[in-house]
Write a structure and sequence with these properties.
2 domains, 12 helices, Hypothetical protein af1432, globular
């Protein structure tokens, strides 16, 4: 990993820790983020400044602040951005996860991907197509459907490392299984293309969700049709919320 990419990754993770109130001090958040990003020794020049981390936190703010979020949640976030550990009126309350999904997904409307691979247009339109196809394949599997809808959110955050950025941005709001689908979707495509190594193939094949991952890859490749009519974002999230309610989530 080059120095700039490592620096960005540490800044992103430190900002996430502060934003979610897992840490309240910039130094501790930076140290924890650095340990997660690199096991070796780092120079001080490799670490992001407080300003760089604050910029990432402000980006989280723009992505996560929806019109329907409670006022106390906004205040809680402001405390976290400032490194302030004071209790807020909302206590430990957190944002509604479906509002977070919406905020993560909306910026994809302005993300254009490679037209040869994605002739359909913007990344949000693609994501909704993939969700619609996934729903036809497994209508009652919320974790699978969320992976289909959210798999590209990182492209609005870091075009150089979208999977890392997306998973970090969704941490705490998705299950380990949904996260696993997103993390391994690239391998599903490599498997389909015949470029996945033998060891990696064996590793995937030994997992309980291998077949579902293959299906997700198929949906991702098929969700690239010009003129397709998937549900709009609010309808998709409404259906997922209802599914979660019915399943007791």
């Amino acid at each position: 990993m080059n120095d700039d990419k490592l620096r960005r990754q540490i800044a992103f993770e430190a900002a996430r820790l502060l934003f979610l109130r897992h840490e309240s001090e910039y130094l501790r958040a930076t140290q924890k983020a650095a340990r997660r990003a690199c096991r070796g020794r780092l120079r001080n020049s490799d670490l992001p400044t407080a300003t760089e981390i604050r910029d990432q936190i402000q980006q989280f703010s723009r992505l996560c602040e929806g019109d329907n979020l409670p006022e106390e949640v906004g205040q809680m976030r402001m405390d976290a951005w400032r490194g302030n550990d004071a209790e807020t009126a909302g206590g430990n309350a957190g944002p509604d996860r479906f509002d977070v999904y919406r905020a993560r997904l909306l910026p994809l409307e302005h993300v254009q991907q490679n037209r040869l691979e994605h002739p359909e247009g913007d990344a949000l339109y693609h994501s909704l197509q993939v969700f619609d196809l996934a729903r036809n394949a497994a209508a009652h599997d919320e974790e699978f459907l969320l992976a289909a809808l959210l798999h590209d959110v990182g492209y609005a955050l870091d075009r150089h490392a979208p999977v890392v950025a997306g998973r970090a941005a969704l941490a705490g709001f998705i299950t380990e299984r949904t996260d696993w689908f997103i993390a391994n979707l690239g391998d599903a495509h490599a498997l389909h293309a015949g470029t996945l190594g033998v060891r990696a193939r064996r590793r995937l094949a030994a997992t309980p969700d291998f077949d579902d991952l293959v299906v997700l890859g198929r949906c991702d490749r098929a969700g690239r049709v010009r003129g397709a009519q998937p549900p709009d974002l609010d309808d998709a999230l409404h259906d997922l919320r209802e599914l979660s309610r019915l399943c007791g989530g």
